[in-house]
Amino acid sequence: MNKASPHLVIEGVVTDQTGPYSVSLSMTGDYFEPSLYFPTVSGALVILTNDIGIRDTLKELLNGIYESSKLQGTSGRTYSMAVVTGGKEYDATSFMPAKTVIDSLYSLPRRALDGDKGYDIYVMFKDPPELGNYYRINAQSSSLIPSDSIDGKRYRLFTDKLTNGNEMAVRIRAGRNVNAGDTITIDLLSIDKAAYDYFNTLSNILSSDRSPTSLSPANPITNISGGALGYFAAYTIDSKKIVLH
After folding, report:
1. Where in the sequence is the domain holding 121, given as residue range(s)?
2. Spatial separation of the C-alpha atoms in residues 106 and 49, rounded to whole Å
3. Quick one: pLDDT band at residue 51, thresholds 50, 70, 90?
């Protein structure tokens, strides 16, 4: 029986919100001996830079968690990440798109045919006129832990391939997980194509049967060179809240 050797997993993010920004390093386990424990990777050299020459060497605050100290995310700029560990270097770049803002939020109570109560939450925003915009929407409830589970959907991803320049109306169907009085926070992330491809393939893998005969790829598409798994993404965030009535 073949055994899959461990791989380095890198998850790095830069946003237009005030830093610090973090990069996390861990190792995968054996595919044939799955575990919820992923060993962290300490002692790595992690550097973030932008396209105007600002360089930030991250400090390891917790095991495997590295944080920036001086870099500030700004839309329209390209960010690069370099990680050196175990005698190998891993690199990635990501462009931070212009921010798309949420125009409005509203909710409507509904009752399913089986009598189950719930809400439809609508997120309205205007897609820019230029083609090639990608989005991820996170929906969180004040009464739920973990977050982003009001309808059991982990990834809400959108592209303007068929709706370029249009007013977008995204419906989130929230069922028995939310109640009147809950505060719902919606985050609209403007991401680049590399981040979209990563989360899209990850979503497809998680929704497949993950059997040995599955046609899904073994790992999601990554923008990190050197054989690491994971992603590096620079994106903007616009947030709005609504209270359910």
Report:
1. 102-191+239-243
2. 39
3. very high
Cα Rg, the chain, nearest whole Å: 20
Same domain, yes or no: 33 and 89: yes
Number of domains in the chain: 2
DSSP character string of 99-113: PPPEEEEEEEEEE-T
68 and 13 share one domain: yes
132-148: burial string, b at 16+ Cβ within 10 Å, e else:
ebbbbbbbbbeebeeeb
- Residue 239: beta bridge partners? 187
pLDDT tens per residue, range 7-42: 899 999 999 999 999 999 999 865 444 455 678 999
Give the rounded percent of residues in the chain with a pLDDT score beyond 70: 83
Structure tokens at 206: 């998680």
Q: Does 97 sit behind a cis peptide bond, omega within 30 degrees of 0 on the bond before it?
A: no
Task: Name the one residue in this structure whose structure tokens are 């590295």.
Answer: 66
Q: What is the pTM of this model?
A: 0.87
Q: Which residues 6+ apart lie within 8 Å of 113 measured at CB?
A: none
pLDDT in tens, 64-76: 999 999 999 999 9
DSSP single-letter state for residue 196? H
